Amino acid sequence: MTQSMLSDARVTLAQPVPAPVRVLVIEDTASLRMLVTTFLQGHGFETAEAWSIAGARELIESFRPDIALLDLMLDDGEGYDLISRMSERGIPVMVISSKDAPLDRILCLEMGADDFLTKPFEMREMLLRTRRLVKLIPAEDEQKKTVNTLDFGTFRLDLVERVATKMSGLGSKLTDAEFRLLRLFLENQGQVLDRKHIGQEIFKRTFMDNSRSIDVLVSKLRKKIDTETGTSVITNVRSTGYVFNADMSVRRD
């Protein structure tokens, strides 16, 4: 599909509704993009359309979406970077893609996606999943809270910037999924968390107890927060899950 670079994105308003939820639909197939946006508008959502990475980046700034539906294969590249960009801003993301291999799903979730819908799909299922994402939109009062940091072991976690910083000064930027996992551990200090519970809390969907995606996520987090002595604050509990043990304190700025 060929589109003018000067008309890389388009905003379409739904019928007026109280405080409409803004949905950014990023899809390079014009017919599907129009079908999705029209369907969402008919159910009270405000929509914006983009069919390229460049157009999506522009609309993230100008349209300020509450939710995003993202196709991975776009006119000017793959949209993985957009997942991280939006999740860092607290924008719930549902990936809609024909790439349905388990590794594709895991990669998207690790980069911060909140849901994954495989093409082809039913429009009503898409609507149901979009409505579930509405529950993940940060409340305005939450966004305005005073900056807090959590100190644990030799690290300080900035809850706004989502950076885990060693006392030595080196920092590690966390993905959305890594941040949620670390915060879950900190909120359940010393308690054994099974994989099913972790999956439900982090990805907001049901996980099997033997899901390898949780182990992969924990491994990535460990690499960023293991102490300089090589001792991990995250301990495996055989056949169950994990437990987090570290001295912790809270600081409100």
User: Helix and strand string, N-terminal first?
Assistant: EEHEHEEEHEHEHHEEEEHEHHEEE
The CATH topology of the largest domain comes to Rossmann fold
Distance between the termini: 50 Å
Report the CATH superfamily of the largest domain.
Response regulator
CATH architecture of the largest domain: 3-Layer(aba) Sandwich
Number of domains: 2
Helix-strand category: alpha/beta
Described by strand count, sense and barrel closure, the largest sheet is: 6 strands, mixed
> What proportion strand?
15-25%
Radius of gyration: 19 Å
Description:
Helix 7 (about 175-185) packs across helix 8 (about 195-205) and helix 7 (about 175-185) crosses helix 9. The chain folds into 2 domains: about 5-140, Rossmann fold, CATH 3.40.50.2300; about 145-250, Winged helix-like DNA-binding domain superfamily/Winged helix DNA-binding domain (Arc Repressor Mutant, subunit A), CATH 1.10.10. A 6-stranded mixed β-sheet has the order 1-3-2-4-7-8, with helices on both faces. Helices cover about 35% and strands about 25% of the residues. The chain has about 250 residues and is an alpha/beta fold. The model is unreliable at about 1-20, about 140-145 and about 250-253 (pLDDT under 50). A hairpin with a 3-residue loop joins strand 14 and strand 15. It is elongated. It starts with 8 loop residues before the first strand and ends with a strand.
